[in-house]
Design goal:
With 855 residues, this protein is α+β, with helices and mostly antiparallel strands.
Length: 855
């Protein structure tokens, strides 16, 4: 049986705990102050509150601890200010340190600490407390570790003193004001205190001297390593810039930052270097830097390694815009770098409701996500802007949106991107009222903005997404639609899954509960989940609208004759040597080219050297506009990582030449992907039907080349193929009464046909208010040329010339996902209803009379 230690045993291990009332009281104050600081988590006030309640609470504990230490000094040491007890001084300084960090939340001297600094501060607090408890009684290995931590902590305290040296004069001049300004001297007092401890330990034994030396050398070694990496990346930046600016023998149409992104290593050091001056402070200027706050939608952070390396090695040549482009390309930070008009630092996503309606016989689903945004600013009702980014499945389209205004759900209007942007910027930037704005983004994404989000009333919005289901091994798969936005990891979620057919054979990665007519889940938000159900025969029942009907048909594994005359290899880091050799064996009988600033033909003599050179690239942007005969060419690619988007390359020679190529309406280039995923660059070209794609293994590729076959092109003016599923939707003249198919057939047809025709407008940036907008309005789909917007007042729509399309489907809805009657069908329904009422009028009057007299 386990025996608890006695009081005498604890007293021998931790002498101050029971023998000293003053120490025990200060320790209780410290634990209370620490709990208050940790659990407040910065939500008890923002940087606009001069002094927060948490600060006054912790400052009160510090003053109490100070009084108890003075009492101890008076009774035990013979004088109020004889601070000779190091144990009491440790607890008092730890109290003052928490008070200083609480004050720092509203009067920022140090920006938010990075995780490794937080870990160091926690370890330092534990080491100091352990010593004050009776550190001399612990085993030697733990004592050595504690001394190493104290040594690192001493260096960090010296760094803090140097960083805030400018503010010491403020502490001297204004220290009389309730002692608040004296918090600036806490790092200096820590330096003195830890120095005394290290002096004490180095005199005890030689082993402690080695521990102190190790504590000094570890951070010094990390700093040297970091500075060397910094210098290496700085050389890469200079090389990329100088070569493009001055090298007359190398002409590259891509901006120099793209070339740099192809070479930079994707690691934590590169991330910090690219964020320096944008997220991480890179100078010794105290206070808030507005440039830092507006460039990146994240709180400014303080990393000593970044600041020291910047001041030792100097700032590199990149400007802020190129830094952001590299961060977006290498580290996928597009959501954080989204331009915003208002702050969103106090927002979080409180609740997510997901409703999924499945159409198994049409191999598609309609999803509605309703999100609730909460503002946790404590004192003021500041208006803040919420920005979200949703990640859609391939082939999916946004078909509805709504915003709750004064408790009433208001549905979205569809208009051009330019009109929607003008309305949002005017209303949010100047008039500070309620809009919602959704833009289409490359790579199957959308960006969504909601304003204002206040403390008094949570904001609610909803988006609807129509998506085809993927089929694998005889089952249909639905994947959750994930998003990024104001803190969502702690959100509560409710999920409802239903359909017009029996879902008994459905399997899901969530623990679902069966209800009356749907399945449900309640719990914390889950970003990654999927469900599957058996694949069914595709229904051929049409959807009819405006004298046109839209019919779905299953994909067919059909191939057409194609003899590739030229083969182009898109080589980068995603290619292995084994894969390259296998592809070479399959294509070496043809003309094979790679791109290295110019098209170079591969031979047995140069292929290995060119492969080694190209494989160093993190990614590539293969210039399809430089392929001379696209009708007889084949591009072979693979996936490695994210790439710049077409909008990132705007106004570059590469983009201008690509735009000129698209304007000539070339035939779609056949492209074979060796992986399942597509790079954002090629995925966008594929969406715009500039690539005619197929994919699979190298073995399948070899067979296709040998048989001179490639997947048939099945799209025309009246037929679209849904990416990712291969389903075909065909538009024909309506014959007979309307079908019972869901209206999502028309929505997906309009979206995919629009993508096929929108490429010239998207690349050129020209507004198109004609056929493309009419096509988008027909299916009410978000697209490269259309946006969805919700405004507060009806007159706002007229002010910005945003009109509701009367000939389109309007916002999609779970409640009305079936076929829509035609105008003549409505007339027949009304005539039938009127006839029935006329024939039954006598019986109805008699029943009403009976009810009246019975009362």
């Amino acid at each position: 049986m386990l025996k608890l230690p006695t009081k005498a045993q604890i007293n021998r291990l931790f002498p101050p705990l029971f023998n000293d009332f003053h120490y025990s009281a200060c320790l209780v104050f410290y634990l209370g102050s620490l709990a208050c600081f940790v659990f407040s988590d910065g939500q008890s006030g923002g940087r606009n509150d001069l002094f927060t309640d948490i600060f006054f609470f912790n400052y009160f504990f510090t003053i109490l601890g100070f009084c108890f230490v003075l009492s101890y000094n008076k009774t035990r040491l013979g004088g109020l200010f004889r601070f000779k007890s190091i144990n009491h001084n440790i607890v008092l300084l730890l109290l003052a340190n928490i008070s200083a960090f609480s004050l720092n939340r509203s009067l920022p001297i140090f920006d938010q600490s990075v995780p490794w600094v937080v870990g160091l501060l926690v370890a330092l607090n534990i080491a100091l407390l352990w010593h004050s408890f009776g550190g001399s009684c612990v085993p030697r290995p733990f004592s050595l570790l504690m001394v190493i931590i104290l040594s690192i902590g001493w260096l960090f305290s010296v760094y803090q003193v140097i960083y805030i040296y400018q503010a010491h004069l403020v502490g001297i001049l204004y220290g009389w004001f309730f002692g608040i300004a004296l918090h600036i001297f806490v790092p200096l007092l820590f330096t003195i205190l830890i120095g005394r401890l290290l002096w004490y330990y180095q005199k005890r034994a030689v082993a402690y001297r080695y521990a102190i030396l190790a504590g000094f050398l570890i951070p010094l070694g990390m700093l040297i390593f970091f500075c060397q990496k910094w210098a290496h990346i700085d050389r890469l930046i200079e090389k990329a810039y100088v070569q493009q600016a001055n090298n007359p023998f190398e002409r590259d149409d891509l901006p120099y930052w793209v070339k740099l992104g192809q070479e930079l290593p994707k690691d934590w050091i590169t991330l910090r270097i690219l964020k320096s001056g944008i997220v991480y402070r890179d100078d010794f200027q105290l206070g808030v830097d507005r440039r830092l706050r507006t460039s990146f939608n994240r709180q400014i952070q303080h990393d000593p390694l970044v600041l020291i390396a910047t001041n030792i090695k100097g700032k590199f040549w990149l400007n802020d815009q190129d830094q952001l482009r590299l961060l977006n390309t290498i580290f996928n930070t597009r959501h954080e770098t989204e331009r915003r008009l208002w702050s969103g630092g106090n927002l979080e996503t409180g609740k997510v409701t997901t409703s999924v309606q499945l159409f198994p016989e049409y191999q598609m689903a309609y999803t509605e996500k309703e999100l609730t945004i909460q503002n946790h600013h404590t004192y003021t009702d500041r208006k803040q802007e919420a920005i979200y980014r949703f990640y859609l499945p391939e082939g999916a389209a946004v078909t509805s949106a709504s915003l709750w205004i004064d408790g009433i759900e208001q549905s979205s209007f569809l208009t051009t991107k330019e009109k929607a942007e003008e309305a949002y910027n005017t209303i949010v930037g100047r008039e500070k009222r309620d809009p919602l704005l959704i833009h289409w983004q490359e790579g199957n994404q959308l960006s969504l903005r909601v304003f204002p989000c206040t403390r008094r009333t949570p904001r609610r919005f909803k988006i609807g997404i129509t998506s085809p289901l993927k089929v694998r091994n005889g089952r249909q798969y639905y994947e959750n639609i994930d998003f990024k936005g104001p803190f969502w990891k702690g959100a509560k979620e409710q999920i409802y899954i239903g359909g017009k057919e029996d879902l008994d054979q459905m399997t899901c990665t969530l623990p679902l509960e069966e209800g009356y007519n749907c399945y449900s889940y309640q719990g914390r938000y889950r970003s990654s989940w999927q469900l599957s159900l058996p694949a069914k025969t595709i229904s051929t029942r049409p959807f009819t609208f405006n004298d046109q009907q839209y019919t779905l048909s299953a994909p067919q594994a059909s191939a057409a004759h194609f003899s590739a005359q030229q083969v182009y290899l898109d080589i980068h880091q995603g290619w292995s040597r084994r894969r390259f050799n296998q592809v070479w064996e399959a294509v070496k009988g043809k003309e094979v080219y790679v791109y290295t600033g110019a098209m170079i033909r591969l031979t047995e003599g140069n292929r290995q050297s060119l492969f080694r050179r190209l494989r160093k690239q993190n990614f590539s942007l293969f210039p399809i506009h430089k392929i001379k005969n696209p009708a007889q060419a084949l591009l072979i690619t693979a996936y490695s990582q994210l790439t710049p988007t077409l909008k990132d390359l705007e106004d570059s020679p590469f983009s201008n030449e690509l735009l000129q190529y698209i304007a000539e309406a070339p035939p779609a280039l056949r492209c074979y992907n060796l992986d399942k995923d597509w790079s954002p660059f090629l995925a966008t070209l594929k969406q715009f039907r500039l690539l005619h794609s197929d994919g699979g293994t190298v073995k399948k590729l070899a067979i296709l080349l040998r048989l001179r076959r490639f997947r048939a092109q099945e799209e025309d003016q009246h037929t679209v193929v849904l990416p990712g599923s291969g389903l075909k939707i065909r538009q024909t003249e309506a014959v007979g009464p309307g079908g019972t198919a869901p209206d999502h057939l028309l929505r997906l047809f309009a979206y995919n046909r629009l993508l096929k025709e929108a490429a010239p407008y998207y690349f050129s940036g020209a507004a198109d208010g004609g056929p493309l907008i009419q096509l988008a309005a027909l299916g009410h789909v978000l697209s490269p040329v259309s946006s969805l917007v919700v405004l507060e007042k009806a007159e706002d729509y007229g002010r910005f010339d945003i009109q509701k399309n009367q000939n389109g489907l309007g916002n999609a809805s779970i409640k009305s996902a079936g076929s829509v009657p035609e105008p003549h069908e409505w007339l027949l329904i009304l005539l039938s209803l009127g006839t029935a009422i006329w024939l039954l009028r006598r019986e109805l009057l008699a029943r009403l009379e009976l009810i009246f007299w019975s009362r």
